[in-house]
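Forum > Structural Biology > Help requests

Title: Can anyone predict the 3D structure of Manganese transport protein MntH?

Hi all, first post here. I have the sequence for Manganese transport protein MntH but no way to get a structure on my laptop. I'd be grateful if someone could post the structure tokens.
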Amino acid sequence: METKKIVDPQRTSKATLPKNLKDKLKFVGPGFVVAATGVGAGDFVMASIAGTSFGLTLVWVIIVGAFIKFVLTEGIGRWYLASGKTILEGWHMTGWWATGYFGVYLILMGLIYGSAITGTCAMIMVAMFPGTSFSLWAISSGICGFLLVWFGRYQVIENFLKILIGVMFISIIGSAIMIVANTGNVAYGLAPSIPRGSFFKILGILGGVGASITLTSYAYWIYAKGWRDRRWISIMKLDVSVAYIVTGIFAISVMIIAAELLFGSGITISGNEGLVGLADAYGARFGDLARWIFLIGVWGAVFTSIVGPWHGMSYLFADFVRIVKNKGHKASGKEKPINEKDSSFRFYLFWITFPPMLLLLFKQPVAIVLLYGALGAAFMPILAAVLLYLLNSKHIDKTDQNGKVKNTIFGLIILLYVYLGGSELFQMIFG
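Reply #1:
Sure, ran it for you. Structure tokens for Manganese transport protein MntH below:
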């Protein structure tokens, strides 16, 4: 069966395949990049709102959401390692309409997301340094991400995000442990349940923990890591498993903090500002130093959601341009590898950094926001459906295809995201 490597069909992996678990764990990395990239303020907000409203009865939702993200990311990695093609190349197999949709969404994503995430980062910095300029923090956050990706390479990005994950681990999980050790007396339920009034919060958690276009960047990151064929599938599964276990623990820790501090207090939180409110409540209980530590952890979560997309989405755009230039035909094998110096990579890096700064200064155009929301609502169900098709196709060996259990899981994920996407569109139109 003839396959095509995503950027360099003549190159083979020189990395040595590890044999035991200890050596395999040393290779864990790309999963942390994609998981840390996807865990941003939105996940923490939904976890804190759920903890404030329902205690720990919705911990199971975080676990389910992390599992959904694991399934999709594992599918993307398995498709690439088994076929030698990125998910975007597989996406293109369904027709030019799909590729065009992806391109338009990616362009709009750069504008809206670039503005939103740098604004969230700025909000956290203003909470840490009251009286400072929101716009200055937002612009400097975007530029820092720009410079790190422009001058860095994949391994630099991975190492940097691992440091931020370490910071998050110490601050967020440490805060949860300290709260439980010093209080732990709040009377909330622990048994998994669906409390009255929790339905839309459950959907919000599943949508936040389980959805991100950056999942599609995983193939480029495992390529950069040196994983080039199906021999690496077991390593890839371990990589993704460890990453989503850790990020799931982060979200659960935030829920614990919110439950212990605010459950039953009558205080409600909403939006990204809720994280600052949660930090204030934490500081009121344990002092300013504790508040600072918590905010540093939240900042780490948000900044990973700048660096990761700045790098991964630029790769996506470069691959999109390559497919369009080749008119969907197989590459000749003489192309230069796609890397961080590629002109289309750097164009998108510029696009996601600087034009969004204008949206920070002016109100976001309603038409752009509505179009972005509509395209975004359809993205995850289409991604899951494309993966379901590709992982049952003849483009990969039968041993790497989905079985009945995986097909059932993908089917349920598609139904979930169709419902989530439909609800989002309904709210946009009528809400």
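The chain has a mean pLDDT of 82. The radius of gyration is 21 Å.
Shout if anything looks off.
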